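Observation: inputs received (chain + S-adenosyl-L-homocysteine).
Thought: call the complex predictor directly.
Action: predict_structure
Action Input:
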Amino acid sequence: MADRKNSRGKVSLVGAGPGDPGLITAKGLERLRDADVVIYDRLASPRLLEEAGPDAELIDVGKIPGRTRLRQPEINQLLVEKASEGKTICRLKGGDPFVFGRGGEEALALAQAGIRWEVVPGVTSSIAAAAYAGIPITHRGMATSFTVITGSEDPEKEESQLSYKAIAGLTGTIVFLMGWSTLPEITRQLVAAGMPSDIPCALVQWGTTASQRTVAGPLSDIAHMAEEAGLSNPAAFVVGEVTSLRDELGWFDNRPLFGKKVLVTRTRSQASRLRSLLEESGAECVEFPAISIAPLEDSSQLDAAVANLGRYDWVVFSSSNGVRGLASRLEARGGDARSFAGVKVAAIGPATGETVKAELGISADLVPDDYVSEAMVDALSGEGIKGKKILAIRSDLGRDALESGLAVAGAQVDAIVGYETKVPEDSAEKAAAAFDAGIDITTFTSSSGVDNLVDLLGGDTSRINDTVVACMGPITAERAEERGVRVDVISPERTMEALVESIVEHLS
Ligand code: SAH
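Observation:
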């Protein structure tokens, strides 16, 4: 029995990449998602851990270097134990598992214990940190080779295996990892061994992440310069002509929002688009699920409307959530796109229009570009809605400007709640924690988002007002001001693209 269990367990030594969560491999991500147990280090991106399954056991064996961390033999033992229980284990290691990650030792322990294991190589920081700092590790005419060296050898070792004479004679690029604390010693030894003291170097801290910082200078000064600049671990030390290309090839850390922490308050499902737009501009996003969307507890009203879809002239969706809410009830009742025969469909903005297509398989007849209710009322009025029957799918919160506007235009409106909004229990703590972590920019994309965040902060807007506040569209901004928030940026249109553009403009 024990043997059979043993044979089911498996350990994947997975390279998490250097920091940017996008730099894990496709195979590594698959192993992470499938694992029963994830055992990770300090250098694996916290964002990656969100990819683990909801029931996965997460074990941190890294912590702060030198403190409270499991020693290597204990980590090896933990891997063997968990695998012996028949579990599937993802051993997530920063960069590449076999580049100074002690992955080889873990693999040996597993092999010796007869445990199934594999390695999924990763993008090593030695190359990627340089690349994100605008430094190609090799370059025609400058460097035809590269060497990666440890800057901190096992202190128990009696004699150094490193020959600085040999290293100083290398003509290609040299990268030292784990060399932050010994940087003055490394540079001194290199110069003493005959390397030109003016050879250009760069130190890249937290490469590929939003905390990336680079200091460049000549070999003889770089240790001092890096210390002055307040750099710290983890850092990659790059020596060679190629580092001078950085002036021309810097790309990652000179994007307009680089180094800015942005609070994104939207529902989980909707925040990602804004998040990726902000991240493309270099920002680091703290996503804050102030509201989550849930199906209706009592769907009798919605069901009745769905049963009578054919009686309406128009169905109007004011959000993607509304589309999903209706689609799920339609499906539950065995209906499909044919229930919309003879009924016209309007969607507030292109994103909602796309959801209509995806969820219901039909193209919306009317999609005003502007995301506000007023634009929808104008557009529908242009279609002649006097006396027409309209089903408006709305949220349980929010303004009823759409409903009243349509009624004023002479339509007969049934406004039915299509989904419920919920405030997760731990949101208040998350809100406080986000501001503690040092937010630079707060974004609001809707009036209800403003209400939620301000309510969660107990009505105290001072922490929001310490940041740059950016609102999507004037109506959101108005609500923010009503709630005591000072608004710095208002995007002219209610689109995520316009919001990000306006933020970039404001900061430049
Ligand atoms: N297996 C890892 C290296 C582990 S040793 C890899 O392949 O990248 C840890 C050292 O890697 C750190 O001391 C630092 O020198 C380097 N390092 C790891 N992540 C880094 C990052 N994001 N930026 C710069 N250096 C990094």
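Thought: report the result.
Final Answer: Residues 1-5 have pLDDT under 50 and may be disordered. The pocket of S-adenosyl-L-homocysteine is lined by residues 18-19, 43, 94-96, 99-101, 124-126, 129, 177-178, 204, 206-209, 233-236 (CB under 6 Å).
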